[in-house]
Amino acid sequence: xxxxxxxxxxxxxxxxxxxxxxxxxxxxxxxxxxxxxxxxxxxxxxxxxxxxxxxxxxxxxxxxxxxxxxxxxxxxxxxxxxxxxxxxxxxxxxxxxxxxxxxxxxxxxxxxxxxxxxxxxxxxxxxxxxxxxxxxxxxxxxxxxxxxxxxxxxxxxxxxxxxxxxxxxxxxxxxxxxxxxxxxxxxxxxxxxxxxxxxxxxxxxxxxxxxx
Length: 212
What we know:
By secondary structure, the protein is mostly helical. It is 83% helix and 0% strand. The chain has helices at residues 7-27, 34-68, 73-103, 106-138, 145-154, 159-170, 175-184, 187-197, 199-210.
């Protein structure tokens, strides 16, 4: 049975989507094509920034709320440890992508592919762990005042940041994800933020995938 969609899973879908896009982009990269390598580095930096921001929100707001609700502290500690492992893997891949963008060489492309593969493994392990073990404990709390307070804190972002997030989130989104988002966030809000305040993503990142 398919698990119900949540905003958390919607974000996970976007992360998995971009990791696959990057893998395909690196596999198809022609030797010496520095312009394309630079595009992929820029797209990777955007993914890393969105994933990092998502995890910082969890560490700062969601984990403390869950701890106060009596969720297994060992599980939360494991989640934080996995966040640290992901942060290290993401940083290593950023270095590899930067080297490739500078040189465009076959050797650096191979190194970037290997680093990204390791990062995908670490990220996928965490996302799956979170979906299978943590989400079932979070779901019953989504209608509580404590969760509403957390949601309010998570929404305190400049329009440009929120716009970039929605532009990224909805780029290539599945029909299932689109239906969930439509039922959760007013469509005009998503449209205005994604199109008007998501200019940087729409101008600099989305074209990277359109040229694939």
